[in-house]
Amino acid sequence: MERSRDFYTQALIFESVSNITVEGQDYSVLEDVAEARIRIVTLQLQDEFLRLMQYLNIEGKPIPQNSQSTDLWFQHFAIVVSDSVSFFAR
Questions:
Q1: What is the C-alpha separation between 63 and 39, in angstroms, rounded?
Q2: Which domain holds residue 57?
Q3: From CA 86, how far away is CA 2, in angstroms rounded?
Q4: Domain count for the chain
Q5: What pLDDT score does 62 carry?
Q6: pLDDT per residue over 8-51, tens digit each?
Q7: Which residues lie closer than 8 Å to 41 by C-beta, 6 or more apart?
Q8: Three-state DSSP class for 86?
Q9: d(C-alpha 90, C-alpha 87), whole Å
Q10: pLDDT of the residue at 74
Q11: How far apart are CA 40 and CA 55, in angstroms?
């Protein structure tokens, strides 16, 4: 989580808004994960928000080597900037 947060706040100038840990039946049902305990870091870039989620009581799995961008688990987003050359240089 720290590495991801540092990337977004230092390289992409997001601002940290909150850092909370949630758990309980409601989150377990919502995420379909038994006894979910989740750290949620919320970041902001102008009017947009990004939530990074770390499951604290479940070990992650590596990304499969044959992964494709059309896989159902794959997600991405775009950041719109007025000067892409300057933003990329940063």
A1: 21
A2: 2-89
A3: 26
A4: 1
A5: 83
A6: 999 888 999 999 999 877 777 877 777 888 899 999 998 899 99
A7: 1, 4, 5, 16, 18, 19, 51, 52, 54
A8: helix
A9: 5
A10: 82
A11: 9
Q: What local confidence, expressed as pLDDT, does residue 58 receive?
A: 83
Work out whether the CA dihedral 8, 12, 13, 14 comes out positive or negative: negative
- What distance in Å separates the CA atoms of residue 50 and residue 53, rounded to the nearest whole number? 10
β-partners of residue 21 are: 39
Q: Is 43 exposed, middle or buried (0-12, 13-18, 19+ CB in 10 A)?
A: buried
- pTM value is 0.76
Name the residue among 85, 82, 64, 84 with its Cα closest to residue 73: 64
Full DSSP string of 1-56: -HHHHHIIIIIS--EEEEEEEEESHHHHHHHT-TT-EEEEEEEEETTEEEEEEEES
* Contact present, 41 and 51 (Cβ < 8 Å): yes
